[in-house]
Amino acid sequence: MPLISAVIITWNEEKFIGQCLESLKGIADEIIILDSFSDDSTEQICRKYNARFEKHAFEGYIEQKNFAAGLASNNWILSLDADEALSDELKKSISAIRDNPGMDGYFVNRRNNYCGRWLRFSGWYPDRHLRFFNSQKGSWAGLNPHDKFILEKGCRTGKLKGDLLHLFYSSAEEHLEKMDRFSSIAASSYNKAGMTAGKLTPLIHGTWSFIRSYFLRGGFLDGREGFDMCRISARGSYLKYRKLRQLQTDNKGIK
Q1: Tally of CA atoms within 13 A in the half-sphere of 255 that contains its CB
Q2: Which CATH superfamily groups domain 4-108+129-162?
Q3: What are phi and psi of 110, to 5 degrees?
Q4: For 26-52, what is the mean pLDDT?
Q5: pLDDT surpassing 50 at residue 45
Q6: Given phi > 0 = left and psi -120 to 50 = alpha, else beta, which region is 253?
Q7: Percent above pLDDT 90 for the chain
Q8: What does the alpha-carbon distance between residue 175 and residue 236 come to, in Å, rounded to a whole number?
Q9: What is the pLDDT of residue 145?
Q10: CA separation (Å) from 79 to 84, 153, 200, 207?
Q11: Dist. CA 162–CA 88, nearest whole Å
């Protein structure tokens, strides 16, 4: 029977980490926490669940997750964010295939809770992610902060029943703060990758983001929460390219 390592990266996650770890009972044979020097009660909460708690300076989401995966004792990894938890159905699905996984990795649907409402539209459900996988068959990649686990060519994937419950943002203010932070990380990653942005790029991306999520993907059906989600996410898209443009101006003298 393959043993499972649950791997989580953290930084000041006292709000939700307890629910995350509670949901891993009976599923994870080992819990690895890689923390970026939290100054709240994250460590104390994690140690109550007998998690292995390691600290490492944050270098980027991709870098941190690859480092964390390297700490796992088992090949099969269940990767969660600190504000996520396994639904009962998802736990049953993992238990059903753990004796004979059959595939190299499994996708799960993530259900996002925004300001107390479970989103059904806006492109946020089903929000599919590869989170249960044989770590020897791939690695984390992408452009920060949008990390994803990439399996080697020829690997097979399946899909698990049940949802990964994402507690997401508890307020619009929290969402705004995170979009500002994420847009800075993304702009820096894009700049390092050689991507560019024209004068109209921020406006085009921001406007299209809102139209796509709110109108084309039915965000209006999620009520006020859907509107706030689409509006602030669109602002994040706008800021990402505006900051990229500013980096180009600072570094290359673009007028």
Answers
A1: 0
A2: Spore Coat Polysaccharide Biosynthesis Protein SpsA; Chain A (3.90.550.10)
A3: -100, 130
A4: 97
A5: yes
A6: left
A7: 95
A8: 9
A9: 95
A10: 10, 21, 38, 33
A11: 7
Q: How far apart are CA 184 and CA 245, in angstroms?
A: 11
What is the DSSP-derived secondary structure letter of residue 211?
Answer: I
* pLDDT (0 to 100) of residue 255: 46
CA-to-CA dists, residue 145 to 137, 196, 230, angstroms: 22, 18, 19
Both tokens assigned to 31: 């819990």
pLDDT attached to residue 253: 53
Place of tokens 């992408």: 142
Which residue type, as a one-letter code, is found at position 46?
C
| Distance in angstroms (rounded) separating the CA atoms of residues 232 and 235 | 5
Which of 92, 101, 216, 228 has its CA nearest to residue 163? 92
Token pair belonging to 86: 């396994």
Q: What is the rounded CA–CA span in Å between residue 8 and residue 46?
A: 11
